[in-house]
Amino acid sequence: MIRKFEFEAEIYETLSCLPMAARRKLDAVGIKIGRSQWALLSRGERLMICHAPANSPDEIAALRLFIDEAVLAKAGSRPAELPEGARRSARPPAKLPSQLAAHAGALGVPIVQSAWDTLDDDERYALVKLGGGATPSHNLRAALTELLGARNR
Q: What are the extents of the domains in the chain?
């Protein structure tokens, strides 16, 4: 089952971009699919990546093999390997990242540790991906509003 967020609702119609659930799985299996590689995959292959389980070592290995073979067949190249640090990002931190807090505050949607503590790993992952880097995503405000709601008060 894929975790769907309202802030990326338009993505689920066409799967023209990688949804957060698929991005998290790719981080967990240790590979990066380029936008052009993703576009070459069939809708069925994209859906499989989105919905395939990736919790146990066997599931991760099977998903990695599927993605590797599908991308190679369609794009003629393998997905890029992720460094260990990027792989660890699939498991978001328990402590609110300071860069994310700064970006959220700058957008007028401050986040505090007690609100961060109420979020599940999928929600934390999405917020870190959208706002944990040097430049926040255009979707960060929508994600913060959706995921924090009244929790941040």
A: 6-87, 92-152
